[in-house]
Design brief:
It is globular and about 70 Å long. With 397 residues, the protein is an alpha/beta fold. The chain starts with a helix and ends with a helix. Strands 3-2-1-4-5-6-7 form a 7-stranded parallel β-sheet, with helices on both faces. The protein is 42% helix and 11% strand. The protein is built from 13 helices and 7 strands. The model is unreliable at 1-85 (pLDDT under 50). It has helices at 2-5, 13-24, 31-63, 114-124, 135-146, 151-154, 182-185, 198-208, 234-255, 284-306, 329-339, 348-358, 387-396; strands spanning 102-106, 128-134, 167-170, 212-217, 259-269, 309-315, 370-373.
Length: 397
């Protein structure tokens, strides 16, 4: 009878055991029978847990290979036998089900970055995904899609090609049309496009799609990112804050009212927010620190006001087009490989899968968090390949 009371999910077993324990100390209880019942429950729990563990291990083994469609720099020359990360966003074991959910992802520019990987994993999970693309990049993106340049990266686990519900021009530096300066409004790179400020795009999304469930902010720009902080101008510093941090605040302001209760917002950050990364300048480290602080505050305010969650993923280095703007991304990737607890290259799909989980109902109790997806590099206090450490090792050898 005790076994029959055990919930399939495994979450109610403790209450059954607890009630059994209470019956043991009852004066009228049949002690031997109850003890045997408790043992049966615990044995069932162990069997159930072992089965789930073996299933999970099998799932991990199955997930080690798959369709990636993601192009990332290879370091096989440096590491003859690299350990590969997850390359498929197809769920194994416990599924992430986003069927019927509507998502808006801001920041896709090509098929190489985190925003693309997140979009792909959301589509794999069943979500309808619309994109907000930087206005000057929209034409190139559409043409690349039409010419089939992204076809390999668009392949889903069932062999079909990923498609998007809508493509919207977006410049998240501007909240309303009144904020757009004349030199931008008349710029030929913006010619032919309209309604691309945050408030205008939110209005269009509500008109075209209705309420949404998922909002992804994958936006960052620091015009002076290669300048040390001591050589960064006020204009450059504030520009980094505006594009990389305040844009999240503005998007939650404008999109929050058109999100369903239980919806989720996700942004992307970097560990330079709380550690010194020489070369990541121009105020970008400060912008990421602001983004993480704002994530916590927005989680509270938007949680109470709109009943939505807000989190951010701190991703490790990836050789995307945007990351190459820093100028030394290949060295950072190699540094991560040599010093992270998990010695392998980071896959964009690993970030995409984590994002899909955080954006799903499975993460309904997680909000206001910075979730690290970096092979554990952020946990390290010393670099294993430090010349100083190596010199000391040689002396003691």
């Amino acid at each position: 009878s005790a076994a029959k009371e055990m919930s399939y999910s495994g979450f109610e077993v403790s209450s059954t055991v607890g009630s059994t324990s209470r019956r043991i100390f009852s004066k009228k209880s049949n002690l031997p029978v109850i003890v045997l019942s408790a043992c049966a429950v615990m044995a069932a729990c162990c069997f159930f847990s072992q089965g789930r563990l073996l299933s999970t291990m099998a799932s991990v083994r199955r997930g080690a290979t798959g369709i990636s469609g993601m192009r990332a720099p290879s370091f096989r020359n440096h590491h003859p036998n690299p350990v590969r990360g997850l390359t498929s966003c197809q769920a194994n074991g416990l599924p992430i089900d986003l069927k019927g959910k509507k998502a808006f992802v801001a920041g896709v520019a090509d098929d190489q970055g985190f925003a693309w990987a997140i979009s792909k994993c959301l589509v794999e999970a069943g979500a309808d995904v619309s994109l907000g693309i930087w206005v000057p990049a929209l034409g190139i993106f559409k043409k690349s899609m039409q010419m089939g340049k992204f076809d390999e990266s668009r392949k889903l686990s069932d062999g079909s090609l990923m498609d998007f519900e809508k493509l919207y021009p977006l410049d998240a530096v501007f909240d309303t049309p009144e904020d757009v300066p004349e030199e931008i409004a008349t710029n030929k790179r913006y010619a032919g496009e309209s309604d691309w400020t945050i408030s205008e795009v939110a209005n269009l999304v509500e008109k075209d799609i209705g309420k949404i469930d998922i909002l992804v902010h994958s936006l960052a720009n620091g015009p002076e990112v290669r300048n040390p902080l001591l050589e960064t101008s006020r204009k450059g510093y504030l520009a980094a804050q505006s594009a990389s941090a305040y844009s999240l605040v503005s998007m939650v302001q404008k999109f929050g009212p058109i999100m369903n209760e239980g919806g989720s917002v996700l942004s992307l950050t970097y560990d330079a927010s709380n550690k010194v990364v020489p070369g990541y300048g121009g105020g970008m480290s400060s912008a990421k620190a602001s983004l993480e602080s704002d994530t916590r505050t927005l989680a509270y305010e938007a949680g109470r006001k709109h009943k939505i969650r807000v989190n951010t993923v701190s991703a490790g280095p990836l050789g995307s087009r945007a990351a190459r703007a820093i100028g030394f991304i290949e060295r950072v990737i190699n540094y991560s490989y040599k010093n992270a607890p998990i010695e392998k290259e980071l896959s964009a799909m690993e970030v995409g899968q984590t994002a899909a989980f955080l954006l799903s109902p499975l993460a309904s109790a997680i909000t206001g968090q910075v979730v690290y997806v970096d092979n554990g590099l952020s946990t390290m206090g010393l670099s294993l390949d430090s010349p100083t450490l190596k010199a000391e090792e040689e002396q003691t050898a």
